Each structure stands twice: as C-alpha cells, then as structure tokens.
UniProtKB/TrEMBL annotation:
<dbReference type="GO" id="GO:0042823">
    <property type="term" value="P:pyridoxal phosphate biosynthetic process"/>
</dbReference>
<feature type="binding site">
    <location>
        <position position="142"/>
    </location>
    <ligand>
        <name>substrate</name>
    </ligand>
</feature>
<feature type="binding site">
    <location>
        <position position="215"/>
    </location>
    <ligand>
        <name>a divalent metal cation</name>
    </ligand>
</feature>
<feature type="binding site">
    <location>
        <position position="296"/>
    </location>
    <ligand>
        <name>substrate</name>
    </ligand>
</feature>
<comment type="function">
    <text>Catalyzes the NAD(P)-dependent oxidation of 4-(phosphooxy)-L-threonine (HTP) into 2-amino-3-oxo-4-(phosphooxy)butyric acid which spontaneously decarboxylates to form 3-amino-2-oxopropyl phosphate (AHAP).</text>
</comment>
<dbReference type="InterPro" id="IPR005255">
    <property type="entry name" value="PdxA_fam"/>
</dbReference>
<keyword id="KW-0664">Pyridoxine biosynthesis</keyword>
<dbReference type="InterPro" id="IPR037510">
    <property type="entry name" value="PdxA"/>
</dbReference>
<keyword id="KW-0520">NAD</keyword>
<dbReference type="Pfam" id="PF04166">
    <property type="entry name" value="PdxA"/>
</dbReference>
<feature type="binding site">
    <location>
        <position position="270"/>
    </location>
    <ligand>
        <name>a divalent metal cation</name>
    </ligand>
</feature>
<protein>
    <recommendedName>
        <fullName>4-hydroxythreonine-4-phosphate dehydrogenase</fullName>
        <ecNumber>1.1.1.262</ecNumber>
    </recommendedName>
</protein>
<keyword id="KW-0963">Cytoplasm</keyword>
<feature type="binding site">
    <location>
        <position position="287"/>
    </location>
    <ligand>
        <name>substrate</name>
    </ligand>
</feature>
<dbReference type="GO" id="GO:0051287">
    <property type="term" value="F:NAD binding"/>
</dbReference>
<feature type="binding site">
    <location>
        <position position="171"/>
    </location>
    <ligand>
        <name>a divalent metal cation</name>
    </ligand>
</feature>
<comment type="pathway">
    <text>Cofactor biosynthesis; pyridoxine 5'-phosphate biosynthesis; pyridoxine 5'-phosphate from D-erythrose 4-phosphate: step 4/5.</text>
</comment>
Amino acid sequence: MQMKKPRIVITMGDPTGVGPEVIARALADPVVRGCCHHLVVGDELAMARGIALAGTGFRIETAENVPREEPAEGVVMLCRVAALTADDLCYGRPTVASGDAVFRAICHAADLCLKGDADGMATAPINKEALNRAGHRYPGHTELLAELTGADRVVMMLAGARLRVALVTIHEALARVPALVTFERVLATIRITHRDVHRYFTRNPRIAVLALNPHCGEGGMFGDEESRIIAPAVQAARQEGIDATGPLSADTLFHFAAQGAYDAVVCMYHDQGLIPLKLLHFDDGVNVTLGLPIIRTSVDHGTAYDLAGTGKASAESMKAAIMMAAAMAGRRGGEDGAPCG
C-alpha cells in the first residue's frame, strides 16, 4: 500500500526578508516536493518576487487548503492571506501591513493544522518588531502558537542529524537564568522532550540533562543548583520511566551526544545548547516547537536582511524544516516516517 504524503503548510515569514526566496528554492528540490503536498500561506506579490529571485520559473496557483493531489509540474500552491503593495515589500524595511500579513499567515496555518486540513506546518523567519508594530504583542512564533493552540507549556528544540537540544530557558538575560531554573521547569522540559522525541523521532529516547554551573558545581564550590534542583528533577523523571541522565557537565557532554550516546540534550539556557548545535548544523538546523498539539518546524535563522534581494540566501534550513515536518507527520500517523526525514 502506498503511503499517503503528509500535507505541510508553509508560512512565508517576513516578506521583506529571505523567506519567499528560500521557500521557492526549497520547493524546487525534487526531494522536498516528493516528501509532501505543500501549501504556502502569505502574499502573492511577495511570493512571485521570491520565485523570480530564486530563478525557479514556478507559476503560482491559489488554493484554500493543502491539495491532496500532486500539483502540476512547476506550480507553487499559495493561499493568499494578504494583499501587500510594492511599498510594503522593500527589502529590510517591514511595515505594519507586512507585520500583519505575517500574523495572518501563522494564524491560518495553525488553524489548518488544528482542523486536520494539514498535517504540520513549517515556518519561514519573521521580524518580531514588525509583528508587534502591527498590534500583535508576542515575542515570537512560539508564544503565538502556544496561545493559538491552547498549549500550557512548550519547549524549543533545535535539531539536526547529529544533535538535538531542548531549552529550559530561552531568550533570557543570563543574569536571570539561575532564578528561572526551577525543579518544576526542569522536570516539565524533560517530560515534554521525552514525550515528543519519543512520538516523532526515536522510541524511548535517551535524554542527557545538563548542569547549570561549570563542572556540575564542583560539589557546591561553583553553585548548588545541580544538587538542589536539577538532580531531583532528573530523579523524578526517572521514577516516571524516562531515560534521563544528569546533571552532566556541558563542557564534555556534547562530544558524546554528537557521537550518538544520547537522543536529546536538555540545556539550561540558550547559548549552552545553541552554540554546539549551530557549530554542527549551521546551515541545516531546524527549530521544532515541542508541547504543541500540532507539528511545527522552522528554519534556524532570521530574516537575513543583509542577504534579502541578493539571490544568495541558502535554502538548506528551509528544506530541512519542511522535510522534518513531513517525517514527523509520518511517524505520528504510525508510519516509519517519510523517506526524506
């Protein structure tokens, strides 16, 4: 029996950045197109410009839902949720209208997933300032999607073929991190990471949990969060049947994780996890939001205004995000996963 292709909705991101271009270039890859049925959500003028910049020769056909059939050769399927003007499409200069278009695209894609009309969503990068200027007060995709889907707690995971890192705290000043590393937050991050990595990536994942301080606090000389907070959270997770190990020292753990000793690493703060992840997966890393009732992946880079309009933006992360969403959807459905995963 032939496996049905997952239906993946792709949000265009900031139309004044590299989003439309990298989407067009990603969809030109036969491997990406072979993974899923696609629907881009955004603005037609911006997408047409991205197609021209990428030199793919695509033509646009519009649709409200992700098609269940293969589009004709050379066609990009698009759902229009905005009607931007040329004034809204100056590279590197987002407007209120373009910020609102970003919001509308994310909301529509999430709605398609929640209704079962799409199996997952992959998002291009956005400008948070433009989103807020348009009256939508969210720090970014993650918080907006948590509200749209009614998720109580979400976890940011960055993933590549060799390493997956999940974050206890995300975009926080380093001085605030110790107070935010609580027993409840560490345990919740371990639980969500275990549940979704088990569901979408590998059964019964082996999870490494990092220390906060150098050398695991060196017996309390450099801090006691390890003994007071992290070790008890790991023990509580283990009592629930989760294969969690820690706290482990971050300066050595990643060597072993990258060699396959662990399936995911729970990190206490942003740079602790993202520095090694981006060292290994700078071009093809994928941002995955765990804890949502829907599948959401994203590129692991920003709007890249310095590259917007130059035709030089890499589509590798966008390709990886679409393919990972498709593979996750296949595994959720009880399959072994899409062949491109």
